[in-house]
Each structure stands twice: as C-alpha cells, then as structure tokens.
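=== RUN LOG ===
request id: a7f3
mode: sequence -> structure
chains: 1
length: 274
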Amino acid sequence: MSQLLARLDEAVAAVRARSPLHPQVGVILGSGLGAFGDSLDEAVTLPYTEIPHFPASTVVGHGGALVLGRCRGLPIAVMKGRVHFYEGYSLEQVVFPARVLGRLGIKTLVVTNAAGAVNKTYAPGELMVIEDHINLLGNPMLGPNEEALGERFFDMSEAYDRGLRDAAEAACGAAGVRSHRGVYLALTGPSFETPAEIRAFRTLGADAVGMSTVPEVTAARHMGIRVAGLSCLTNMAAGVLDQKLDYREVLETGERVKEKLLEVLTQLVQAAAR
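=== RESULT ===
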C-alpha cells in the first residue's frame, strides 16, 4: 500500500470512528460560506485538527471542520472551509480532504467559493453556476499516479456535470437568486489580481476569478466523482470599478447572501443524490 493510501485510510477510519454515517454527497464551502454546515440534522462535527493528516485552514472565514449529518434526510459530509495553495500547502495536501470524501463513499461533490466577477454584467451577491474552468493554479495530479484512486490520464471535458449545472440553475431560480453560467479561472493568490490581468483573463473567456476549487474538482474527477460548482460573486474584480479590493468585502457579501445560499445548496444537494 502506498503512503498516500495509508494516510487516506487513517483519516477515513478516524471519521468513521466518530460517525457511522455513509455520506452520498460531499460539500466544500468557501470563504464566508460555512453556515450550511450548521444547518444539518444529527450533525457530528470533527475539527480538521482531529482528523489524521488533514491540513488545517489558516484563513479567516474558513471554519476548519468536517460535519457529517443529514440534509432533509440525505446523509452528507460538509467541509466548513478549505485550505489553499497560497497558505503554503502542497497541491497534494490541498486535495487530501476531497480524496477523503471520495474514500468515505460520496458519489457527488458540490464545491462553492467566493469569487471576483470578471464579467461586467455580473454583480456582487449573485451566484455563478460554474460551467467550466481555466486552471492557472497548477495540477494536483503531478507525480506518480495512484491507480487505486483513478487512471493516469482522465477526461476533463465535462468537469462540471451537465445535469447538475441544470439543477444548480433551477435551485437558484427557486430561491429567487439571480444566477449566471460562467467560467471560473483559478490563480494561486494570495494577492488580488491587477486590472491588466483581469483584462487578460476576460479575453481568455473567464467570467469569475478565485484562488481555489479547481484542485479539488480535478481530484474528484480523477476519482470518477460527479461535480457541481457554485461561485458566490462577492466583489467586482480589479479594474471593473474604481476602488481597491478588500477581503472584508468578500466576508460581508457572503454573510449577506447566506440565507439564500442555504436554500440553493439544500435543493442542489437533494438533486445531486438522484
């Protein structure tokens, strides 16, 4: 057994020792979006520090706990916060939690993030259903392949499941949230982008920009897990408005849309299990 599989098995055993739940859907919550994890029934909360080999988030707005519980009866696992490449973790460490969710048995992963709107027709507080992504962050699959997790070369032509995109858009409509379908571009951070970079990314076809999500999506697809992605548009990207960017705006917008996002995620999780 490889060292990676041994670490994954240790983490999974620690989770199962605390909860007998077998989650069907996994959810990863981004900056300021952790409230969904508090809404579960029969919840068991495990701080990341209590799960072997789990990286711990160091960023404000990321709760740092895995919650297993039920959403309208459906067994799910929710990550309240994630770790990022810019925190000093390797990409293998960044995707370790997503791989643990896969080894716990999830068939579908729902990822959320806070993102800056590159598309000028978008506005803060709206949601973007991720149709596709542009990866300028790096690929977590570099290095030896672990065949027990997935094939060396795997397809990414439908990284975000087509049916789940439709379900996410329908959930936004039912919750009364204005939404868009768009392309998410991932960068390392932690600095925000320059106006010139944003103009370049718009030319590349990006609609929103952020510093996460793509590594976990790549790892999930490597394991054959379906993925749905939602970006909470917390601010306009650099140069769109004549103002400086501030992380506090990200957290404030996340708090403002919290209730609507709870409705969207509740409906999307139900659809994802079908």
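=== NOTES ===
The domain at 3-272 is CATH 3.40.50.1580 (Rossmann fold).
Residues 72 and 249 are 32 Å apart (CA to CA).
=== END ===
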